[in-house]
Predict the 3D structure of the following.
Amino acid sequence: MFFDTHNHSQFSFDGGATTVEKSVKAAVDKGFGGICFTDHCDYYVPEMKAQFEPIVCEVFDVGAQQAEIDRVSAMVADGAFGKAAAKKFKVLKGIEVGLDEHSRELNRNLLSAQHFDQIIASVHYLEDTDPYFGPYYKGKNWKEAYGRYLETLLREMKRLEDFDIMGHFDYIVRYAPYPKESILYRDFPGLIDEILKYLIENGKGLEINTKTYRAYGLRTPQLDRDILIRYMELGGEIICLGSDSHKAEQVGAKFDYFAQYIKMFGFRRLGHFEGRKLKMVTI
Ligand SMILES: [Zn+2]
């Protein structure tokens, strides 16, 4: 039974036409045990983004999102999505916090003022750029571009501390211009070890963000098996599957594939968080 730990709803600035209700229905239809809505919270958006698209507020309305989750949870409990779902399906309250040196205090304040089931920490912006667009890569080779992303992620996670899951550690490969499509363990063994050890020692989850492993134009990033093997060697257990859905039809994308994939390396359970407490479900 799967829980999709990473989903966006109408409350994310880029949520588009999706809604909590539609994505819950999609997850119920797939036979999942639950879904967590982790809308975007990026307090700092680099100015250069305005060259490419108008800057909008990227901090969601936590109160409105949680009220809507309560409303849809009540529908689930009343049987609106079927009897089986009424008994077991969980709609969880989450957030995807954008790590950034400018946002440290605002992030900490928000997280201590609100209650969430699960907090994902991610890097979307670094060095005053949005890597979705070109300028971040200018003057950098792939090793510098990927390495600096991993260093930023590690540094800012350690600063924040108050989170449950590291989001899309290899997000930077999605939009990069290099022939090198993936972040491989052998290219950054020391840095990746440090990241994995930090997660393991602090009880945080390692997210497999299935959105990263699809085609972006001619490039299709891969999840490096050596990272999973190393994670297990170091004693890691908490793998979380997140689709990063921005549309209902993306909920749970490729979960069957990645569940089988991690089984090859000996993982038998997947993690998610309820009320900030880790739950492990056998797959
Ligand atoms: Zn993200």
